[in-house]
Amino acid sequence: MSQELYEALREAIEEGDDVRAAEVARELVKDPATLQGAVDTAIESIRLVGDRFGEGEIFLPEMMLAAEAMQAFMKIVEPELEKIAGQAKAFGTVVLGTVKGDIHTIGKDITATMLSASGFEVRNMGVDVAPMDMIEAAERDGAQIIGLSALMTTSMPYQKEVIDLLKELNARDDYWVIVGGGPLTPEYAEGIGADGWARNAAGAVRLCERLLSSKGRPSTSEFISEER
Amino acid sequence: MAIDRERVLDVLDRAHSGPVYKERDFNLKVIPQALRKQIKKYDLANTCDRDNPINTDDELADRYFRAGLEAAAEIGLLCRDTHRAIRFSVQELEEALKLAPQEFWLGEGDQRVCYKHRDPEDPTLPVWTVPLSIAVTEDVFVPLVEGLARIPEVDALEGPSLETVWGRPLRSGSPYELLAGRYQADLMREGIRRAGRVGMPMDAVGSSTTHYGVLGGYGVPGGYRPKHDLVLILSIADFWTSYESLFKLAHTSLCGGEHISASSWVMLGGYPGGPEGTAIACVAYTVLMVAAFQGSRTGVPPFDIKYMGNCGRRAQWALSVSNQAVSRNTKIVVHSINNQVAGPNTKMLLYETLVGMTNMAVSGVSNVVGTRSAGGRRTNHLSPLEHKFGGEVYKAAAGLTRAQANEIINQFIPKYEEQLKEQPDGQSFQECYDIERLEPTPEWRRKYEEVKEEAIQAGLPLK
């Protein structure tokens, strides 16, 4: 029975059917023993969708809808996992936005989707976000990571400004700061004092996973570059 | 003819009264559904021909035009500040296309340039504007502009873009950007003067993507000239616009400006989907930019989301069929962009340039702006030589048939298509040029000469 449900869940996610994903989730929570397998299936499915997007086999709407199906499933399953294991969240919270003066949205939205689908709690702040607004949102949401996207050379200075503000507020060690965007290089990212840089959304997920599994602190840890 | 204030007010009214959409619904429902509907209605599924990236089927191009026109009316432009869609009926869009100029002049004196409508395979020489707004440091800005303006094939200037203003980081949306508007005009004019080409037309303002650069640099004393220069209105992909663009429109109108470059880009693999949906979206977005922003020079090229360029087969195909669709079915001055990923002092950059410029020359594009050296990723990574080559190819290919052009580009795409994701940065201007003499290094010149010879052997009538 559980294998059939896992298969139905896989189909629902890969086809981006959030209604079906929620239905399957409601069936699965009736038997708590199936839940861990279901979560593993869901993660495997969404990663497959991400890979297919990366290869150009499917397009952005399909990936976004798959992520929404994943979220619909997790919304129902998470409270049950909490009851069983006393914890549901394997990962942390990321506050993500495109910096001030920049209204490019697609790359940041893909990253938000991939992070969310991979189990992170994501607060997508949108575009043209002032440095202090990013910091205040991170504080309010108890985030561990601040993600800053910039697609123009004229908006890149605001990424550094967030890091400088954190230092001046004596809050640099409170958050990992990651940066990305077309004109950025890892050398630039390291130079402005970011904790990590990723070339694309899949890399951003790996970067966040590595940062949160790290035992270090932002001010003393080595810079991480996710090239793939 | 100056920008029509009544039309400015009309588009502002539509931005404040059109239907409201949440971002998610517009991106995931409105755009894909409208494009899928047109693909079905006009039987466009699987029409992308990767083996022949330049479309040779006029009837197919015409179907793409009808599909794009109808999709434009259904989708509209979503204003991110009001969350309302600026919509026009098909009839209104057709009327706006008829009002757009078939030709216009920019620049002064012996540097005046005629921007004129071209058809596919048209022998009329196109206009070559250089470079794209790639960031450079202040110390090399003027020498680079001088080197670019010295190139005979170059007709007009757009970039480069300043990384700093008087040593301060150029922050988007800040007063620095306002100052940069006028500052860039001064520096551009100095480079043009040194090259002996006073009066060349310029596009305002490459260093500033927000409206502040235009407010600070266009129509102000000593700044960009409303009668002789273009204002750049570049909306954000896909089918989005904003107050930033509307501010530029209003300011151009106030200054008595006559010509706007209204453009954007469409992400292939993004919300419009594959090459067919992308090509329809390019047509639709172009038509909308003419209607909303009174573009004299208008175009929307694709960017492939897989490698953030458009020199691969499916992007080249979408580029060709969408440009042909617009140039065959309207009389507007079509503008487009070649998005390379390789940097200066690489043969790959020249191969990408050869393919893209040949394609656009035979697909009815009147004015290309380029080169996107190193994908625009690296500060100072552009040089005059790839721009010379781009102009030579663009003008030599004008008048070729599309079949001839396909034969040529099919010899060069295999030379780089596997490297599109690797994206070699090449070298900076300082590394591949003698900046004092404005001469390329022997190595860079040798690569240029070798690729030029290969192009001639392949059938491109380069001099």
Task: Write the SSE topology.
The complex is a heterodimer of chains A (228) and B (463).
Chain A: H1 2-14, H2 18-28, H3 35-54, H4 60-85, E1 93-98, H5 106-117, E2 121-124, H6 131-141, E3 145-149, H7 157-168, E4 176-180, H8 186-191, E5 196-198, H9 201-213, E6 224-226
Helix pairs in contact in A: 1-2, 1-3, 1-4, 2-4, 3-4, 4-5, 5-9, 6-7
Chain B: H1 5-15, H2 23-41, H3 58-75, E1 77-79, E2 84-86, H4 90-99, E3 103-106, E4 113-116, E5 127-130, E6 135-136, H5 138-149, E7 156-157, E8 161-162, E9 164-165, E10 168-169, H6 175-194, E11 203-204, H7 211-217, E12 230-234, E13 240-241, H8 243-254, E14 260-263, E15 266-268, H9 275-293, E16 297-299, E17 302-304, H10 313-329, E18 333-337, H11 347-362, E19 367-369, H12 384-397, H13 402-412, H14 429-432, E20 433-434, E21 439-440, H15 442-458
Parallel strand pairs in B: 1-13, 5-7, 5-19, 6-8, 11-12, 12-14, 14-16, 15-17, 16-18, 18-19
Antiparallel strand pairs in B: 1-2, 3-4, 9-10, 20-21
What is shown here, in short?
The complex is a heterodimer of chains A (228) and B (463). By secondary structure, chain A is α/β, with parallel strands linked by helices.
Written overview of the protein:
- The complex is a heterodimer of chains A (228) and B (463).
- Helix content of chain A is 54%, strand content 11%.
- By secondary structure, chain A is α/β, with parallel strands linked by helices.
- Chain A has two domains: 2-85, Methionine synthase domain (Methyltransferase, Methionine Synthase (B12-binding Domains), Chain A, domain 1, Orthogonal Bundle), CATH 1.10.1240; 93-226, Cobalamin-binding domain (Rossmann fold), CATH 3.40.50.280.
- The N and C termini of chain A lie far apart (38 Å).
- Chain B is built from 15 helices and 21 strands.
- Helix content of chain B is 45%, strand content 13%.
- Chain B is of the alpha/beta class.
- In chain B, a hairpin with a 2-residue loop joins strand 9 and strand 10 (168-169).
- Chains A and B meet through helix 4 of A and helix 2 of B.
